[in-house]
C-alpha cells in the first residue's frame, strides 16, 4: 500500500487532509489523534524520546483541563443568566426608577415619564433628541425648587407630530440663581409592564418605554393598606 506521508514541524501526517487548517479549533480528540498518528508514522530509526512524549502528553492534559474549565465557566454564566431572568420577572407590576437619559418608545403614540433631580432651585429646560441626536422637542419648564421632578412627554415633536416608535434621549439644562449651569441626575419612574430579552440584554418596559436592567436605580415597596 502506498502511503503519502506529509511532514510538518514536530509532527507527521498520513495526508494533507489530516493537517489542521488555519483557524480551525483543535479539540482534545483531535490532539490525541495527532499524537497517535505521529507515533504510528514516526521514523523507526529516530523514535520519539521519552522527554518529547511526556511533553506532548502534558500538553494534552493541559488542553483537557482548560476545556473542562471553559465548560464550567460557561455553565456558571448560563446559571447566572437564568437567575437574572427569574429575578427580572418578579419586577413586573413594580414601580421602579431607572437612571437613564436614553430611552425608547415602544409604539408610535407612546409617551414617556422623564424624571430628574435638582440639587438646588433652578430655571429648567428639557430637550429631547432622536436617535441621530437631533433636537425634536424643547420645553422651558420655568423655575423649580430643589428635589425630584418629572416631565410627562406626550411623544410629540415641536411641530406637534408624533415622534413615533424608536430610541430617544433627553437633557435637563438647569441654571441656578447665579446663572451657572447645575449638574442634574436624569431618572425615569413608572411601573414595569413587562420584560424582554435581546441577546444578553434584559429590557424593562416602563410606561411604553424600554430600559436596560443595568439602569435600574430603585424599586419602590408595595403599598400595604391597613
Structure in words:
The protein has 226 residues and is an alpha+beta fold. The chain folds into two domains: 6-87, no CATH class; 95-219, Immunoglobulin-like. The protein is 23% helix and 38% strand. The chain has two helices and 14 strands. It has helices spanning 28-40, 50-89; strands spanning 6-8, 11-13, 95-98, 102-105, 112-118, 122-129, 135-144, 147-153, 166-175, 181-182, 185-198, 201-206, 209-212, 216-219. Strands 3, 5, 8, 11, 12, 13 and 14 form a seven-stranded antiparallel β-sheet that branches. Strands 4, 6, 7, 9 and 10 form a five-stranded antiparallel β-sheet that branches. A hairpin with a 2-residue loop joins β12 (201-206) and β13. α1 runs antiparallel to α2. The longest helix has 40 residues, at 50-89. Residues 1-17 have low confidence and may be disordered.
